[in-house]
Protein 1
Amino acid sequence: MSDRSLFLYALCGSQRRVSTSRRLLEALRDHAPESISIEICDLIGDLPIFNPDDEGERTPADVIAMAEKIRAADGLIVSCPEYAHGIPGGFKNALDWLVSRDEVPFKPLMFAHASHRGDLVLALLTDVLSTMSLHIVEEAFLRLPLAGKTDEAQAALVDEAAQDGVLRTSLERFRRAIEERAG
Ligand SMILES: Cc1cc2nc3c(=O)[nH]c(=O)nc-3n(C[C@H](O)[C@H](O)[C@H](O)COP(=O)(O)O)c2cc1C
């Protein structure tokens, strides 16, 4: 297994204070191998509504900050709930800001999913992100059903997944795919 340091940037589709999607990203960050660092994006909730008139020289600073992190990242992790059989508006808005930019095409991406439901949003995101030319690494997919559970039950599930190596296994699969693509 390689020890090359990887930087992964994590995008959360929920703005909820006690979001289970975010908790899963935090679990990945906190239990990642030493050579993988994960930063969770905190900008998505602050982005203005996308307007193509505001691209180019008028691009908002938060969009540029998010895009620069994406440029620097070896890969992206997306954890996103399903809202009304769709992608949460705030998250789709963040993706819309990235569509015409050059940071995302061919960037490797893995899904971390915190619900036993929500398969439709995974399919929708796969379509949108593939259209944006991201490379989805299916073998790294991680599902940990934290949604709807008490705080204690969530903590127990995270502990169990960490002990079983489930979190690290997904990250190592993601790393392998990233390194294979990098040659
Ligand atoms: C407004 C709203 C709409 C939702 N619609 C769906 C849905 O269509 N399908 C589904 O599986 N879950 C749906 N859910 C449940 C969320 O996807 C689920 O609670 C998710 O895990 C919440 O993620 P979070 O804890 O990261 O905020 C909905 C939740 C909300 C608040």
Protein 2
Amino acid sequence: MTVTEAVSGEPTTLTAAFGGAADLQPWLGMVGHLIAAGPLPEGVPAGTAAATVPIWAHAHAMAPLPALGAQPPDESVAAFGPNVAFTFTFPLPGRYLVWAQAERGYSVMTVPATVDVRAGVPQ
Ligand SMILES: [Cu+2]
């Protein structure tokens, strides 16, 4: 996953590379779904830390808007990706676990990543 410089309180672009052709299908009406959990506490064993974090968030990558009056693409339209960009604003600095998900061939794929978010200027 490619991530622009992540600063708390500022929009971050996270681009998940699903590889292969531009044949991703909208899943639940979206080209991509992103889950972010964090900031991870220090000194908690891997695999358990996310259970205690204060922030669990969900973001979407939408397909281009259809023409006025047209139907948005459904799962039968395999024409997106293979890179899917998300915009998310991390509320707090620290280390986050993120998972991006998209559908290909009627199967859901997951791209995991770790993102370090530095502290922004307090608002
Ligand atoms: Cu979603």
